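fwd from M.: "can u put these together and see what the complex looks like"

so here's what she sent:
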Amino acid sequence: MDFFSSSGVFYALIAVFLAGAIGALFLRRKDSAANIWGNSLAATGSLAGLLFAGASLLHGSATAFSLGTSFPLLTLTFRLDRLSAFFMLTVCFVALICSVYAIGYVRHYYGKYSVGVLGFFYNIFIASMILVMTVHNALFFLIVWEVMSLASYFLVIYESRQSANIRAGSFYLIMTHTGTAFIIVSFLLMYKVTGSFDFETIAAGLAGASALMKNAIFLTALIGFGVKAGIIPLHTWLPGAHPAAPSHVSALMSGVMIKTGIYMLMRISLDILTGSYWWGIALLAIGAASSLLGVLYALSEHDLKRLLAYHSIENIGIILLGLGSAVVFSSAGMDTLAVLALAAALFHTLNHATFKALLFLGAGSVIAATHTRNIEKYGGLIRYMPLTALFFLIGAMAISALPPLNGFFSEWLTFQAMFQGVTAFGLTTRIVFILAIGSLAFTGGLAAACFVKAFGITFLARPRSEAIAAAREPSVLSRLAMAGMSAAIIGLGLFSGVVMRLLEGVAGSLGSLRGAAPPGSAQFQSVSIENGFARISMPVVFAGIAVAFIGVMAAVYSFTRKRKTITGPTWDCGTRLTPRMEITATGFSRSIITVMRGVLRPSSETEIEYHDANRYFPKFGTVTMGLRDIYQPFIYRPLRELTAMIARHVRKVQGGNVNAYILYIFLTLIGLLILLDVGS
Amino acid sequence: MFADAREKFPAGSHPANVNGRMFRRSLAIRLVTAGSTNACEQELVALGNSYYDVERFGVCFVASPRHADVLMVTGPVTRNMRDALLKTYEALPTPRIVVALGDDAIDGGLFRGSYAVLDGARSVIPVDYEIPGDPPTPTLIIGALMSILADLSGMQAQKT
Amino acid sequence: MGFDITVFTAAVLLHFTNKNISAIRLYMVQSAAIGLLLLASTLDRFTPLLLIAAIATITVKVLVAPYFFYGLTKRHDLKFSVSTYLNPPVTLAAIAGLLVLTQIDFFTPLVSLGTSEEKLLRLAFATILVSLLLSINRRGALSQVLGILSLENGIVSFALFAGLEQSPGFQLGITFNILIWVIIATVFASMIFRKFGSLDVTSMKKLRD
């Protein structure tokens, strides 16, 4: 165990990723070699990372190691406390599955795009995510953060022959750099107070900082990391960028990359700083808005991967509900409840990583088989890809929080944490918590509706396009990867009591929650919260569902065993049934969109062409339904116009005259000297 | 008055695969109009009004053959309706009972021998019961249905 | 002392020359003063690197560069503009202002670098500022280049009086500076060679087109 958590293993696994990256680049002339080299090394590195992080997590105490550099303020410090180890574990697990999947999946890029380049950026991307979760120096953090952003940017624009991807990538690049700017401001504020870029020193030094400074640090960090996490209204890059990348990368981006934002928000609001009340309320509000709006947008989406991307926003919202509750509890001194809420947030982080990755991998298999992302073109895929359908169903059930899968447990925990908030606080806070609970409940229902749509329209009924008939299951490795992820989802559901105990330890290790009593008892057999306020036993739930399932099957069998089954054609009232008669995704979600039109502002167009001038006999009709983008005109366009206006004024300064430029240098020099003099 | 009608029209013979308790004295009927003159339909419509009100006897007309116990055919079965009739018959769950309503449906009636018709339902599908008349009156139809029900349930007609 | 005043005076006079030739000569004089300063400090305390720096400075700045400029302006009829943005009285006022700025106790942190030669240090700094002003003020390319070169001389003299002449960094800096000079000149020459197929400067008349 100690061997795995040693620094040598860590350096070795980073080296493996680098070797994978560079080797893939060298092998780029031969696609299959680059594929196998890049992805198998990524899988190896991820496996090593999994062992390393797991050992560190079980080890309990934080391990730190560092490499010096000749630059001042920049030391390559790594520190694995339990929070880092937990997030690294999540990254490595998802990366392992995705890499195994990729070996089979990447084949369809052979001869179209350079597989070597994909392998290069893919390895760099995973390694940088691992580094983001483990570094302990703000400058170093910014460097690896930037590497992660750039690597993911290049993965987003990987299918570069589609101009939409380039557009999505550029928008992502701009947004992520805007976020990075805020992060830099946040770190510089920390530096200004503490004079150090080391997180440890910052945490110690910030204890006595003024409330204004802390608020400023939190706010800039919230915006900066919120962009990466995809909170509403900073989410606009996400539905464009995630679908554009190859699917195993989408799985990583949606499953774990956006969690880097969550990780840093947790670290800043509860570890480095001590949360204050309004931060928690703000996080709750953002979480409620993100979860509700995210799922509503997902419902109206017909692009399978965009739909999943919107669900990422929703789940980030759910995680933020947990985190926000934790901050509120922590600010009120209720550390035990804070641990409960944070454990819920952490659990949902892990769960979302698993089922969202699985869903993206399933979606990737479907898209690779059908060559379209429009779910209106799918249908009946369950007959051609039964295993993929099964895995997708497991993922869909987990994300819809259906028991006994893992999504159910973490949402249940989040609910319990917020119920505690209702009982523990006075009227105003209570109202906030009640509203948050309402939004989470509503979100859960809509998510289930959305995945009924996503699964039903994709896999059930009859094929709606010719391409479906040619659809085949993905390769063995891809199926194996999806099976592994499905097993993990079921396992996390079954063993959620054990995981919960581990996560309580993780939550309790954060700076402002250290030494908090655990919120009840978490065992494999049952989890009990706050002296029996709520109690759940996942094995019993499993057993109950299994018994009910077996009972129903047995009953059905015993009633029908004497009957003869005749298979015949569907009764079609004498007409011929065509796929056009099936319910469409638009039709399915239309009623909900219409109910929510105050929020979603749908644009609906109906076009009917008639046979006759009197308009009695319609020839055919088309209904187009879309959502108007409310973020562009109200937030982004004004910002853009402001920037353009400033730029127009700034342009006057740049006249193309060399003398003027030298004059600027001259004036700056004089100004700096005067400033230096005044300062001393 | 229905008792008279029942005695007058023993509509047909009991199908072999029907056991006594299967229909519980209730019939769900799917009607196929196979080239009828609409006369029979008028009488059938009358069955639903408040005077005759056939539903009080447990007889109802349903919208899909999947829901039906009985396939009722009217009209002499034109060539164009042959496939539709066959398909509907196949769509009926077993055990299925076929009732030909009116002289046209029994043997072609007025239209017998025409090039356009197939001379009754029997030429396309097996018919279990026949209700003669051109068209039969609602009273007759109800009486016939009652005797069919009684026959299917294995009961004596007089008891009901 | 004398050398430094020469350097400063040359920088001031560069502002008021109307001819390219005299500007080049002034630069030559300024560079010679710097070279001699360097040589003098070699006498003070000998290091081979410093000697190399001094000799390189004299060779490149006093001989090669002026010859190069001279050739450009004189023999090939390339007229560089010497017109300015500010008229001479305003220029003089600006120079005076800069001089005052350096002489008042404003730049204390800067001047405290070398306590022994404080006055010279202030003067050297004034040279830097005045040279920079030259680059800003002149419209012509050659004058601007001369302004930058003069600025460079000012920096060297500032470093000298700040007591940095013995530091290897400084000596390396000068040598490196000269090296850059040579590289730029070589690149320039080779570009001309590629463009015109000859280094015979007579064919460079086409440059005017």
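replying to her w this: The first strand of chain A starts at residue 63 and ends at 67.
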